[in-house]
Structure to design on (345 residues):
């Protein structure tokens, strides 16, 4: 994954090498990459692949989304079903028990146009965040899993690869990012290049546009549904203490079953509920401690006040009896002292 950290240098090189010729006005080709689509915030290159299809590379720059949200939108399978109407099924088949690896096996069924069979994928998705270099890398690679064998009514795409590299303008949790996406998949159907190009030119920008819009609405979605963000990146400024060394990735497992539900809540919702309960209990305990302190303080003041009144009464009584201790018998003095002691206790 580390080798993809250099993706931006190559993308910048492509931009400089494939610009229009100043004299002939034709596009240039570099390392077999040629410009396929160019928009205000996006450039797409493609080059021939040994399979007879094309491999694609995308450079994008979005000023209105953060790297943190951009990562979350791509790894949050629940949210993906909300904004991507081509995702018929999207499940986490298995998660690596070592949560620091950020590695999952995903099953994805993608809706294709009429007269075509839907495509489905089983792939390993993994991501890493280097907060010092301010780089996010998300890699997906086709694989197999016994829980999701090939089905007759779908075409299984077995040759699929995607690498997304993201870096911020300033900070990973602040708006403004650049990204480089390199991907290839073999859809398993032979169609004329002209039709393939037409589909790619329409589908690719449309998907990235929807991805961008979905990212801008991710936090409101989490607040609305009670869904906790999968990955929260700490502010790296020196003024705030760094509480976590890595991405705080919410566990996807309850027991041994991926995406299990307990009492109608999934793992993320359960964890958030328990965190809320813990926080409420801690607040209640603090309130109880404060109440106890107030009560003890009140008791202490009352005792002190009663002691002063009783002592004053004793002096007054002694004064009315010619200030003589002889007016009190030893038995009476002992009784008063014992009574005072019990009251103070």
């Amino acid at each position: 994954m580390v080798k993809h950290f250099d993706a931006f240098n190559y993308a910048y090189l492509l931009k400089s090498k494939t610009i229009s010729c100043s004299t002939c006005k034709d596009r240039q080709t570099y390392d077999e990459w040629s410009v396929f689509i160019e928009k205000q915030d996006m450039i797409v290159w493609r080059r021939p692949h040994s399979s007879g299809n094309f491999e694609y590379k995308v450079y994008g720059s979005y000023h209105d989304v953060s790297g943190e949200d951009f990562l979350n939108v791509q790894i949050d399978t629940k949210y993906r079903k909300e904004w991507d109407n081509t995702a018929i099924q999207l499940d986490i088949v298995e998660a690596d028990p070592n949560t620091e690896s950020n590695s999952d096996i995903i099953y994805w069924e993608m809706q294709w146009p009429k007269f075509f069979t839907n495509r489905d994928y089983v792939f390993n998705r993994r991501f890493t965040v280097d907060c010092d270099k301010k780089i996010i890398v998300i890699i997906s690679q086709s694989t197999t899993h016994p829980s999701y064998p090939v089905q007759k009514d779908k075409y299984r795409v077995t040759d699929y690869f995607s690498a997304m590299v993201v870096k911020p303008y300033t900070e990973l949790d602040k708006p403004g990012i650049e990204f480089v996406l390199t991907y290839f998949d073999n859809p398993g159907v032979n169609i004329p290049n002209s039709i393939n190009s037409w589909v790619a030119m329409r589908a690719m920008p449309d998907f990235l546009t929807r991805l961008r819009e979905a990212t801008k609405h991710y936090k409101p979605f989490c607040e609305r549904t009670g869904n906790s963000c999968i990955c929260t990146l700490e502010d790296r400024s020196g003024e705030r203490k760094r509480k976590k060394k890595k991405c705080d990735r919410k566990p996807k497992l309850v027991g041994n079953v991926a995406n299990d539900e307990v009492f109608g809540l999934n793992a993320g919702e359960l964890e958030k509920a328990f965190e809320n309960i813990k926080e409420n209990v801690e607040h209640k305990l603090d309130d109880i401690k404060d109440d106890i302190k107030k009560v003890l303080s009140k008791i202490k003041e009352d005792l002190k006040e009663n002691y002063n009144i009783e002592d004053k009464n004793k002096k007054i009584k002694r004064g009315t009896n010619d200030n003589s201790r002889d007016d009190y018998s030893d038995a009476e003095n002992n009784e008063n002292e014992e009574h005072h002691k019990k009251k103070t206790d």
